[in-house]
């Protein structure tokens, strides 16, 4: 589970943590709550205090050395917090330029060579920051692009994996809209976490629009949200199976 800064501000960091904790207790599953694309020390500190157990610090829009320095500071704070409160916290960094946003885009996706994560920089980055996970850019982007599917540069992923080995977990953001076969191959080549958001939002939106159309006079929220919930659930089940996570704990 994850919340962006915007989602966390809307829903509430403590509220999200309380809900996930309730699910953990009810399901007995090791559910992780991740702060996605945290871009400031303030939001990281608030998320940790609220009970998040994974932090993604995103300094990818910064010049390389600045990204490295700020990620390093985030790692130090997370490590100190973990030691003080005896908690296991995962800290993730990001390297490369991830285009798009979590929405449906009408334009064609254009990935430039300089957007991609450099294998050499990836190795330098993890050695100098000590992150547990690294979000890479290999042709992925945020959102779903109507003018064609995203195609992953699997050769670049292979180069990154060869460079970093098992020193870090590799993460694929922008998991919506990527061909299933590319996702399977990326997991085979070393991706251990795939972030999916836009496909869930679209399923929610489509279900809500259909229910309002079917029942224009209905005002009871739980009645008009049923199709939205079922649509989101369907996408989640499909992704769990695609990622090879079915019946795993």
TrEMBL record:
The active site is at residue 36. Zn(2+) 1 binds at residues 37, 142, 173. Dihydroxyacetone phosphate binds at residues 143, 174-176, 195-198. The keyword Zinc applies. Binds 2 Zn(2+) ions per subunit. One is catalytic and the other provides a structural contribution. InterPro entries: Aldolase_TIM, Class_II_FBP_aldolase, FBA_II. Keywords: Metal-binding, Zinc. Zn(2+) 2 binds at residues 58, 94. GO terms for biological process: carbohydrate metabolic process. Gene3D superfamilies: Aldolase class I (3.20.20.70). Its cofactor is Zn(2+). The keyword Metal-binding applies. GO terms for molecular function: aldehyde-lyase activity; zinc ion binding. Pfam families: F_bP_aldolase (PF01116). PANTHER family: D-TAGATOSE-1,6-BISPHOSPHATE ALDOLASE (PTHR30304), D-TAGATOSE-1,6-BISPHOSPHATE ALDOLASE SUBUNIT GATY-RELATED (PTHR30304:SF0). This is Tagatose-bisphosphate aldolase. The lineage of its organism: Bacteria, Candidatus Portnoyibacteriota.
